[in-house]
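Narrative of activities, Objective 1.

The group set out to show that a structural description can be obtained from nothing but a protein's sequence at a throughput compatible with the screening campaign. Below is one input-output pair from the validation batch, recorded exactly as produced.
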Amino acid sequence: MPAATDFHVNGPTSIYWDIGGTSTPSTELGKTDNDDLIRITFRDHYRTFSRNDTGDMIAESVLSGTTAVIDFTMVSWNKDELEKLLKRVRVGGTLASGILNEGIFATVGGSTVTGALPKTISLKIDPTTVGETVYTFKNLMLTTGPEYIDFGNTLKRIAFSFTSVASTEVAVTSVKA
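Output recorded for this entry:
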């Protein structure tokens, strides 16, 4: 069996965002560093079926979709864009209707994905290194965050976790040119 020969180092990574659905992320939200790297986890969802002859054992399964969870921290971010992102995921609607304060409470009730004021965003994870993979997620909801980390005499960080919602594509990948 041959040994692994490829080493993949993304370098500093930029995070871009836009409204969810069909939009392509185009506005830089911020940058990560090497102290807390981006984590992307994909989970396949299966419906399992048993039969009389197999008892409780799985006799068949059907893939019903895949969910992605994207966790990251940023050390540098655009405060205006952060406020727009928070408005989108908490209140919904377009970004042109003004920016709310970062700590404002969300509009409670209503759906996240559909309806008149959807609350989803798109993200693009764009590494610095040529030849590495660029990930684009077109339909995400905010799961946790913002979480401010390391207040005090050190570089402040902001953490987020996003989860994909039902869509025909979970992620689109390309190669950094």
